[in-house]
Design a protein that fits this description.
Strand 1 and strand 2 form a beta hairpin. Helices cover 43% and strands 21% of the residues. One calcium ion (CA) binds next to loops.
């Protein structure tokens, strides 16, 4: 039985889960998919750039190889004319010429010089006479050169067009946020382009590298993962809206359930409304004479399936929710149905009813007692109301007033569980009760444990001095009875004599013991009790 706060918390958690789970799953699956797609695209882009780079270098090499084979290997006018013609007809090569061993350009067609030597060699792969180098020719961007060694002093040179790698590939959604870089094996950069986007902005971007098997070349393409995710953004939005809608539906549905629960829908509240709480009666005896003195009313929850729930399992909830008041009212009404006839014939029989701290916050309980028991067949003088010491009373003065009003009706008030709770002797002093009930805890070891003996003896003595009645609870063994008799306790209840009994059994016992002809009501509840309680009462001592 959860508190309203707990039930609301459950509804909120369930709604968040219903909304959150698909979002989380979709996020994972879509994110995964988007990144996988982006990886494939990025790899294709890297390969495309590598392909172009190889194509460019391949073209340069073809030119240089032809020149070498045809013997155009000098800076003579005729050779330079051939250089110029080849550069002119080439797509990617803008200048052809001759360089010395350091890479300093000796001549080049169309005309042009370099501010510094071409850095040689980047590296060599396959043909050791072929080299690729890069340098920044006094301008911002880099240029690549393909060189072919003629001898120790001279190399044919093909200068690659700056725009050779100047193209965009890949899908549109990745074009704005990508970085492309072409490197030579020595780490020098031939080309690098990233626009306004920088991979450092995103730690988890997608990067793919393609390495040439023909030349000392490596292409690296990095794309933004955010850009990758943007492809699934519309789908994500649809799932987000759908899930939020689902979550809202669950919340609304849960809220209805909780509110219904608050106003009578929850199991316990329904049980109270269905009057599933019934009184059991534990007989109380005079241990000197064996005479039945009456009983204590102990609540049981009789579930619709017939099972019987003991008070320890629901009283804390009943007290916390305040439902104990309604339950107590139902029990009192039921005691009239069950016992009025017997009690009207036997005015010496007492009926003891347990109250809680909740009954001591206003005067309602006094009115209730009056309205239920006046003209009921049970007179106030037959009633006793037990107030337990285990739960603190909020307002001792008000509690005292309520007790006085109950006593004014003619009923008695007992202090229950004396010595086990908060009140101590203060309750005894301030509440003005008529009876003290000595808890089972002290009775248990009364014949063996010295401190239990002392406590019980002290309580009994105190009770006698204050003129209070004393009832010993939880008597289970004969030697306890003997001990109690020895210290002057006359009244007791306990399993030794009888467990709490359903109405029918209590009435039968009472009829037998008092010689009363009172017949039990035909529909008395609890004909088939379960658990600890018994139908068959034992003979009193
Ligand atoms: P309590 O008022 O001290 O009642 C005595 C408890 O001790 C009962 O347990 C009774 O069955 C048990 N008892 C009596 N004699 C023996 C015995 O010889 N041996 C053992 N082992 N137990 C014995 P029960 O019925 O389970 O009730 C437990 C507590 O629940 C009660 O303690 C009382 O504080 C509370 N309670 C029971 N019915 C009501 C009720 O109608 N209203 C309120 N407010 N509290 C109730
Ligand atoms: Ca009690
Ligand atoms: Ca008690």
């Amino acid at each position: 039985m959860a508190s309203p706060i707990l039930r609301w918390a459950r509804v909120v958690v369930a709604s968040l889960f219903v909304a959150g789970a698909p979002i989380a799953v979709a996020d994972y699956v879509l994110g995964h998919h988007a990144l996988a797609e982006a990886r494939v695209e990025t790899r294709a882009m890297a390969e495309r750039y590598l392909e172009r780079s190889e194509e460019v270098i391949g073209e340069g090499l073809t030119i240089l190889r032809d020149l070498k084979n045809d013997g155009h290997v000098t800076c003579s006018f005729a050779d330079r004319q051939v250089f110029g013609a080849r550069a002119f007809t080439s797509t990617y090569i803008q200048q052809v010429g001759l360089a010395d061993a350091r890479g300093t350009l000796l001549c080049g067609e169309p005309m042009g010089s370099l501010h510094q030597p071409i850095r040689l060699p980047a590296s060599e792969r396959g043909d050791p006479s072929v080299m690729i180098g890069v340098l920044t020719d006094g301008k911002a961007d880099r240029q690549a050169f393909v060189l072919m060694k003629l001898d120790d002093d001279a190399r044919l040179v093909a200068r690659v067009n700056r725009s050779a790698l100047d193209f965009v590939t890949g899908p549109d959604y990745l074009s704005a946020a990508q970085q492309v870089a072409v490197y030579l094996d020595d780490g020098s950069t031939w080309m690098s382009r990233s626009g306004t986007w920088s991979p450092e902005k995103e730690p988890d971007n997608v990067a793919e590298t393609a390495v040439s098997s023909r030349y000392p070349l490596r292409v690296s393409v990095t794309v933004s993962s955010a850009a990758a995710h943007s492809t699934v953004a519309p789908l994500r939005a649809i799932i987000l809206i759908g899930s939020a809608f689902l979550g809202l539906m669950v919340f609304g549905w849960g809220a209805v359930l909780v509110m219904r629960g608050d106003s009578g829908g929850d199991v316990f509240t329904r049980a109270v409304a269905n009057q599933e709480f019934i009184p059991y009666y534990q007989p109380v005896f005079d241990i000197f004479t064996g005479e039945l003195k009456g009983c204590e009313v102990l609540v049981r929850w009789q579930r619709p399936d017939g099972s019987m729930v003991p008070p320890g399992q629901f009283l804390p909830y009943a007290e916390a929710t305040g439902l104990i008041r309604e339950i107590t009212t139902q029990l009192m009404l039921q005691t009239v149905d069950d016992c009025a006839e017997l009690y009207s014939r036997n005015r010496s029989l007492k009926l003891s009813i347990n109250l809680t701290a909740m009954h001591f916050v206003d005067l309602r309980i006094v009115d209730e007692i009056r309205s239920i028991y006046q003209d009921s067949g049970i007179v106030y003088e037959q009633l006793c109301f037990e107030v337990t010491e285990q739960h603190p009373l909020k307002d001792l003065t008000l509690s005292r007033t309520i007790i006085q009003r109950i006593q004014a009706l003619g009923a008695q008030v007992a202090l229950d569980d004396v010595g086990t709770g908060h009140g101590g002797l203060a309750y005894l002093q301030k509440l003005g009760v008529d009876i003290i009930k000595i808890d089972k805890m002290f009775i248990d070891n009364i014949s063996t444990d010295h401190s239990s003996q002392s406590i019980v003896e002290t309580l009994v003595e105190l009770g006698h001095q204050l003129g209070l009645g004393i009832i010993a609870e939880g008597v289970e063994r004969v030697e306890q009875v003997e001990h109690l008799k020895g210290i002057g306790v006359t009244t007791a209840q306990g399993y030794l004599f009888a467990k709490p009994l359903p109405a029918k059994a209590y009435l039968e016992l009472a009829a037998t013991m008092t010689g009363s002809l009172a017949a039990p009501p035909a529909d008395a509840p609890g004909d088939a009790p379960t658990g600890e309680d018994e139908t068959e009462p034992k003979a009193a001592a």
